[in-house]
Amino acid sequence: MVDQKELINAVKETVSREDVRYIVGYEEGTYGFETAPSFAYTSDDARKFIFNPLCTKNLVVYPILEEKLPLKREEQEDDRKIGIVVKGCDSRALVQILQEKGLKRENLVLIGIPCTGVVNTKKIKDKFPNQTEYTDVKEEKNHYVFSIEESVQKIPKKELLADVCKECEYPNPVIFDILIGEETEVETEPTYIEVREFEEKSLSEKWEYWKKHFENCIRCYACREACPLCYCKTCMADFLDPQWIRRSVDLSENTAWNIMRAFHLAGRCVSCGECERACPAEIPLMKLNKVLEKEIRELYDYTAGLDPEEKTLFGTFNPDDPEEFIM
Amino acid sequence: MKANPYLPSLAIIEGVKEEVEGNRAIKTFRLAFQDDKKKNFSFIPGQCVMISLFGSGECMFAISSSPTQKDYIEVSVMKHGKVTSALHKLEKGDTLGVRGPYGNNFDVEGWKKRNLIFIGGGIGQAPLRSVINYILDNREDYGNIDIIYGARTSADLCYKDEFVELEKRNDVKAHLSIDVDEEHWEKYVGFVPDNLLEVNPAPENAIAITCGPPIMIHYVIQNLLKLGFKEEQIYTTLEMRMKCGIGICGRCNIGNLYVCKDGPVFSYDQLKELQGDI
Amino acid sequence: MENAIISKEKLPELFTQIIAKNKLFAPVKENGFSLFKEVEKASEIDTSYVNTRVPPKSIIFKQTETLFHFTPGKKGNVEKIPEENEKIVIYAIRTCDAKAFALLDPVFIGDFEDPYYSARRRNSVLIGLSCNNPGPACFCTSFDDSPASIEYVDILFTDLGYKYYIEGNSEIGKKFLEDHKTLFDAASGEDQKSRDKVEREAIGKIKRTMKLTGIVEKLDGMFDHPIWYESARKCIGCGTCTYLCPTCHCFDMQDESTLNKGARIRVWDSCMYPEYTHHASGHNPRPARMNRVRNRVYHKFNYFPKNTEVFGCTGCSRCIEYCSANIDIIEIINKIGEVKE
Amino acid sequence: MKDFEPKIIGFLCTWCSYAGADLAGTSRIQYPSNIRIIRVMCSGRVNPMFVVNALQQGADGVLIGGCHPGDCHYQHGNYQARRRITMMKKLLEFLGIEPDRVRMTWVSAAEGRKFAQVIEEVTEDIRKLGPMKQVRRKNEW
Fold first, then answer.
1. Residues C99 and C194 in one domain
2. C109 touches D: beta carbon within 8 Å
3. Of B147, B201, B203, which Cα lies nearest the Cα of B177?
4. Which phi and psi (to 5°) does residue D61 adopt?
5. Residues of chain C with pLDDT under 50
6. Burial letters A211-221, b for 16+ CB under 10 A, else e
7. Which domains, ranges and CATH numbers included, belong to chain D?
8. Touch between chain B and chain D (3+ CB pairs, < 8 Å)?
9. Residue C70 falls inside a structural domain
10. Into how many domains does chain C fold?
């Protein structure tokens, strides 16, 4: 459980520093079980900051989304630091970006939050579909506690916990400047049970499953935009010449896009689950990310987003990498 | 039942003229219609056409020839993106699709008897060339004509040979400029807005028409106001990324107007009222 | 025939009759969410939804549409495609989505007529289904509509438990009721009362309001207000709001071809992408997310009313509900209303 | 599917596999004509999207040929290609697309005979798999 006061004080203190431009954190959303990203420019703004199991969003996208607009005459670039409130997975995404030199560590201040898992907002919305008021959810002894129309609800954690959090190995930030509260104990060793079960199916069963999902893809690219690791200046999908993927929305192009997205995250995905949360067509994108994560771990003993100094998976090799399939 | 606005008519390239070579190459294509559009295609200077090269895509271009020239239309194309690069590979005899004409036009009727100042930069001269040629063909209806035109280098100037012809005439004044000094260049060196101040046209009974890169238009308008031009005396023609050309696809809006349908010609007082990103 | 009722047992028979002569589009539940699909059997239809994920505009204004065929290359040629003339029935469309068609009509059938949209629109019958359980962010009442408005549909169904109350609106709707009248019973005054009660209850469930008085004029003076930076900071630029919006109509046109045949297609596009307005020269009139979010709000609440005298929003709440950064259009508009000039 | 002749795209590295193919030709070794060769500078240049794109546009199988481990003209391009193609195959398998449609081989400039054998084997394997269905572009507008 994160102490709200401690968080706010830390943010206040950090944002008051001269070398800090702003801090991204969470605030109460506008309705129901939503939380929203919050930007603190002054210590006054920090009062809005919260952290609870509804704070799902990976805020690491914000520093990479920052647009570098042409400066006006005599205008100086603001190179002060950006602060981010990070959970375990968010911090790993950042490590991965640092590894790829997408951002510089010295331009960031990290307020780490030991996470105990976040809620799957879709599930909670389905359970209480008519909740218009913002509802604060608290975690108490393996239960989520919140009140709906003055009656207190107590729901077992495992019913509402987001799927990606169930097998989370790194709930504690791997890099941070300030840590709020006690580190969470890690109990789980990932089993990849869901992926393994799916792998048992026959090829045609698998394709039937994905076909159904890919047909629903509307190619809004929300998965890409929400992902903190999709930060290419121009995405391959947006190239016109050569056009890797046609713009028409059909099974072939949708599949190509989804292969491309998953592949470009191989060895980079940190399992924050943001793509799946953002997908309006509810494609189980994490399944694709997870299978690659599992294979990479088994074949190359590699885990993404742990050490900023490490080389990227595809940027390095081992002469003894498995090659049974090569003729 | 109206005609399908997305269907292009076929046109044959009758000639290709290389205006500028190099990285920012510019070519002028002369197009003649193949079907019944041959007879019923008419336009007023300032209007645009959608040119498609089948398989590459479609782009909006200002017609750069005058409507007094009935047999063909001309468009000048700078090589920049996917479609324009493909267009630049075409030769005489190849087929293109043409839709249009689209958009509004310069008020050539309303400008009769007035002095006209044209201020163009780079490829921005293309739509101006249409009006200029129209007006030269109806020379007696109009007052003094000044043409201020500039480009980055002398090699980047479009319609060079036409300017040679213009300079020979005594009823038109052409003021050419280049941005950076070169050997053998005896005319003005400097940006187009500065050349405008140099030429110093009188605002009385005058209309100023400008087209060029956004930043040039910005400073030209400022300088015109400095010279005493009123907002309604200044006209510009804009460009935007366009797809449908008929005000549906949404991308070319400035405020509630679409450049493809309600533009591309705007007077400055109109433009000032519009809330939108240009 | 004007007002009638149909018992739920007879409903499959009605669908069978419709399917025999028309293409029937109705909501189905797939992979855990609802969407409009062409249905072949009455049993596929699932009306237990608030609103479908992708709006039914996708039936009339398809996400991917072939405009015409061509022969690619230097010696190209154009080949028209035959006009679609199939009769379309859209069942269980919500009033907010039906209103969207009323908003899109002047766009697609204005100075120029979009033949693909207009052909389908002409051939379609909209059967509305009153929304008895509006979602938590719904706000159609802010536009003086109700979850059971009849103006925008040809026929309106209202669920009264074991039967549906049916009202015909347009000529097409009345004729449609006449054609299938063997399945209907006359509606009594009692039915009328329970229908009104259902509507009142549904309106009561809508808790959120967008304050729209004077917003068009207010926006006129707010183009450079800092509120746009504040609202757009959260935006991740994903475009979900526009793809799921029933009134967004932007599209991209592209050529697709093999060596010897090709087609010009159009696909939905979104003003939330930087590429959308990016000129080939490199200039971008809307380079920042601030410009793009501002454009979206202005388009719905300033440009649309200026051009067609109605707001370009129907209150379906999709853009609020599926935004992953909780950008709330109600909040933005209400904030604008509160700004002191 | 007796008459099915698979189309296979071969991305061959210019230094080894392409030279191997050349040798097979000049040595007049017979091999199936199902392969269409695209020469690339290094197997490491093969972007996995090349593979997907080939399958979309009409290929029934894709073969990537590189130098033997340790022999890469650019030191380690083939090692990096190996990791990528391994992951690509795993991903395709998970999606229900036959991973055997994507093959990889090490052929040196001296192995004309091996090249012919590889092509024969790949052609037969892909013939058994039948035409690519899942991601093929329909091109029916």
1. yes
2. no
3. B147
4. -155, 160
5. none
6. bebbebbbbbb
7. 8-129 (3.40.50)
8. no
9. no
10. 2
Q: Is C256 on the interface with D (CB under 8 A)?
A: yes
- Joined tokens for residue C12: 């499959």
The model's confidence at residue D2, banded by pLDDT at 50, 70 and 90, is: low
Contacts of C263 in chain D (CB under 8 A): 141
The minimum CA-CA distance between A243 and chain C, rounded to whole Å, is: 10
CA distances, D37 to each of A168, A311, C13, D50, D80 (Å): 45, 33, 59, 13, 21
**pLDDT of the residue at C1:** 56
Best residue in A239, A240, A244 to probe B by mutation, most B CBs within 10 Å? A240
Interface predicted TM-score (ipTM) of this complex, two decimals: 0.91
Tell me which of C205, C227, C258 is where a domain ends: C205
- D84: pLDDT strictly greater than 90: yes
**DSSP-derived secondary structure for C188-242:** PHHHHHHHHHHHHHHHHH-------TTHHHHHHT-TT-THHHHHHHT-----HHH
Most A-contacting residue of C67, C205, C238 (CB-CB within 10 A), to test interface: C238
**Domain layout of chain B by residue ranges:** 9-102, 115-237
> Residue C266's closest chain A neighbor by CA?
A248
Site from B82, B84, B218, B249 to mutate, A interface, most A CB atoms within 10 angstroms: B82
pLDDT tens for the 278 residues of chain B, in order: 568 889 999 999 999 999 888 888 999 999 998 877 777 888 899 999 999 999 999 999 999 999 988 889 999 999 988 899 999 999 999 999 999 899 999 988 888 889 999 999 989 999 999 999 999 998 889 888 999 999 998 888 889 888 888 888 888 888 889 998 888 888 888 899 998 988 888 888 899 999 998 889 989 999 999 989 998 899 999 888 899 989 899 889 898 899 998 889 999 988 888 877 77
User: Do C182 and C257 belong to one domain?
Assistant: no
Look at residue C103 in the predicted model and tell me its pLDDT.
92
Q: pTM (2 decimals)?
A: 0.92
- What is chain C's mean pLDDT, rounded? 90
Strands annotated E in chain A: 20-28, 35-40, 81-86, 108-112, 138-140, 143-148, 151-156, 178-179
C244 to chain A: which residues are within 8 Å by CB?
Answer: 280
In a domain, C68, yes or no: no
On whether residue C210 sits in a domain, the answer given is no
How far apart (Å, rounded) are the C-alpha atoms in residues D103 and B134?
Answer: 65
Q: Please say which residue of C177, C205, C233 terminates a domain.
A: C205
- Within 8 A of C273 by CB-CB distance, chain A residues are 221
The residue length of chain B stands at: 278
- Looking at the structure, do residues C190 and C222 belong to the same domain, yes or no? no
Domain coverage including residue C318: 215-338
Task: Name the residue ranges covered by the structural domains of chain A.
Answer: 4-68+78-179, 193-315
User: pLDDT class for A1, splitting at 50, 70, 90?
Assistant: low
Domain B9-102 falls in which CATH fold? Elongation Factor Tu (Ef-tu); domain 3 (2.40.30)
Distance from CA of D57 to the nearest CA of C (A): 9
Do C87 and C187 lie in one domain? The reply is yes
Contacts of B97 in chain C (CB under 8 A): 70, 76, 78
CA proximity to A51, closest of A96, A108, A83, A11? A11
Strand partners, B151: B178
Three-class SS of residue A73? coil
B115-237, CATH topology level: Rossmann fold (3.40.50)
Given the structure tokens 């994507």, which residue do they identify?
D102
Judge if C188 and C261 occupy the same domain.
Answer: no
**Among the partner residues A226, A249, A282, nearest to C267 by beta-carbon distance:** A249
Residues C22, C133 within the same domain: yes
- Same domain membership, residue C220 and residue C197: no
C193 and C52 assigned to the same domain: yes
| Residue C66, domain member (yes or no) | no
> How many other CB atoms sit within 10 Å of the CB of residue B153?
14
Residues of A in Cβ contact (< 8 Å) with C326: 29-30, 34-37
